[in-house]
Design brief:
about 450 residues; alpha+beta; Beta-lactamase; two-stranded antiparallel ribbon; 15 helices; 11 strands; about 30% helix
Amino acid sequence: MAVAAAFSAAAVMVPLTATPASAVTPHSALDPASAAALDPAALNPAARKPAGVAARGTASRETAKADVPCPKPKVKPPTGRPPRPVPPPDDPALRAVGGDALATSGLTVPPGSPAPPAITATTWLVADLDTGEVLGGCGPHVYQTPASVQKLLLAATVMPKLNPKQPMTVAASDLDIEPGSSAVGLVTGGRYSIATLWLGLILNSGNDAANALARLGGGSGGVPATVASMNAEAKRLGAFQTHAVTPSGLDGEGQFTSAYDLALIARVCFGLPDFRNYALVRSAKMPAQKKLKKGGFQFQNENRLIFNYKGALGGKTGFTKLARHSYVGAAQRNGRRLVVTLLGAEASPIRGWQQGAALLDWGFKLPKDASVGKLVDPETVTTESTENAPAAVPAPADQPRPAAAPDRGPSRTLMVAAAAAVAVVLAATPLLLLLTSRRRQRARRRRPSAQTYPGPS
């Protein structure tokens, strides 16, 4: 087959259609803090063209194979689809987080692996939840709009801080959501447990529940404090391409993420026992509010993966007209746990969760040591950052973090490029220190070839 013949001894990397230079939004369109977080050069004019990073990015573009695009089904795009939000300026260093093979706008898969399924998702990634190995992806570091999968970042940030048994009272501001968007049906003045809010958030993608949890998690600072903590948590995890504007994932100017970043965030969520329990609940009961004369009702889990996929662990769906369909799902088979993230998908010919299921099937067929990159270890990011790195919300001692695999070390190309860049920007920003941190040396392993439209939520 033409696809198989195009695979080389290195991971396949294929660029997608590039964003026109004229369409790039300057950082001035974002708030100064966001611009600085997204673009290290904004903090240091001398760092705008670090020689090592520029050379590395150019070399990657020139040597990348452009013969094999990400497999796509032959379907017409829907009419009335809004134009794609203009992403921040591309940063070659951020695109290489996790490994050189991930620094592509196109397909990257292990050599000799079967072709991945043809899906409508613009970008996607499959990784091992436990070892952190990236099995493959399509534009893993391409900026995308998250929709409700951003609720996973809210969960990773706030869930360890709130007692699920604690009762709360809904404020009028909690119901201040976009008209027609997804809501689980909270009522102002209603009394609910924190656990009920999490169920409403994860099962029914309730934006009202997201606002309530963000308000409670932010303490006296309310929702803005939680959004700030979400962004700090993203940086702590190494999800440098993620910037939250809303706690729910409802569209906001300057709000972006990537398939790679979502995998980092999902890995933390699936390391939380409460999240794992909520994600597998098929239906839940919203309690009646007798004093308000409101009856109770049942709501369902919108993630059909848990009903239809063997070994499903749960996940999160998302949709807005701007972001299109997004999805995060995980499953376990034969002692192996994989996670899939996808962004910018259409629901035809198959829905987002079905696209995720197809990618999980593909991932489970690969050898256990198949890899094109690595999900960076949050502990390494934290311990090897400077004292000026964004503060993270610490997890309680009884919330274990996902196990990380022994490190194989960064590629020689990435080490040279990052070393040159950090020499220029070290005093100005801790962001690129991830790419130059001394990582634990790992034993080399041989890698054999593989055998074988709802409202916004």
